[in-house]
Amino acid sequence: MPDEQLLDCLVIGGGVAGLMSAVYLKRYRRNVLVVDAGKSRLRLIPRTRNVIGFPDGIPGTELWDRIREHAARYGAEVAHGCIDRLERAGDGTFDAWSGEQHWRARYVILATGASDVAPEIGGLDAALQGGQLRYCPVCDGFETQGQRVAVLGRAGHGLRESLFVAGFGNEVTWLAMQTQDEVAPEDLARLRECGVRIAEQYPRHIHCTPGQGVEVELQGGTRLAFDVIYPALGLTHVSELALALGAQAQADGQLKVDAHQQTTVPGLYAAGDVSVDLNQISVAAAHAAIAATAIHNSLL
Ligand SMILES: Cc1cc2nc3c(=O)[nH]c(=O)nc-3n(C[C@H](O)[C@H](O)[C@H](O)COP(=O)(O)OP(=O)(O)OC[C@H]3O[C@@H](n4cnc5c(N)ncnc54)[C@H](O)[C@@H]3O)c2cc1C
């Protein structure tokens, strides 16, 4: 793409939100380019079962292929690269760089996603694919029915996640990492009422073995066995490019947006995990539809 071409919209990130934005904008016959670093969280999903239209589920990588194919069908171009600098010019347009490559655009949709804080667990990658380690009970708590489940998380966050996970007819233990004293006694009592056990000592060692489950050794030497572990150590929203432009965000980087997904920087929109705490494929797709349509309307 020639350096001097002014795009209607540059989409940064080519996961769910970015590609859905491109489908909408191309179908509105807009001049759009997606630049993607190729690390969508979709590639970490062994099989998603809550995407409408796929009742038997679909592996995340296959879904990503299908979404890319869908965007390509309408002529959306995806450039591989990582945007490392984004600036807003005096006339309100944007300049973006990926190394030496440069693009200019009237509008930008930031669809850069989020990343989970990974625990120190032996065999993590295989466990993620095998379903022994899961990050998202909203997505797959349903699949843990009847299983022994550990939740690894500190204080209030770990407690809330344990309560959420305990709603699926399973057997839950909160690995509290010695933060159980930081929560209110009535919350602890509620957790116990829901049948959640609390492992108070710090886990010294956690290991997942495909097909065999999760082994936890506590500092006192006690060994616990689980079928599944949910790390609940937090999430980082990938919003640095917007923050550098002065966009407002929460402490964890989640961008503030209006009803049309516009950030507090005029012309800069955000869609998907970067701007929401309900990290879901359906939410990312909906954000994209809203942002792309708002941009199209602004260009009329
Ligand atoms: C293990 C796991 C299981 C999950 N299961 C489900 C499920 O069953 N159902 C469900 O609804 N959701 C599930 N999710 C969540 C789902 O994957 C996300 O909500 C969804 O992918 C969000 O889409 P997104 O477009 O916001 O971000 P992503 O799909 O993560 O895409 C972001 C893209 O932006 C790119 N990027 C980042 N920075 C830059 C940059 N500076 N320049 C260029 N590109 C950049 C990244 O490389 C990436 O390709 C799961 C997530 C995980 C981790």
From TrEMBL:
Keywords: Flavoprotein, Oxidoreductase. Residues 8-288 form the FAD/NAD(P)-binding domain. GO terms for molecular function: oxidoreductase activity. This is NAD(P)/FAD-dependent oxidoreductase. Pfam families: Pyr_redox_2.
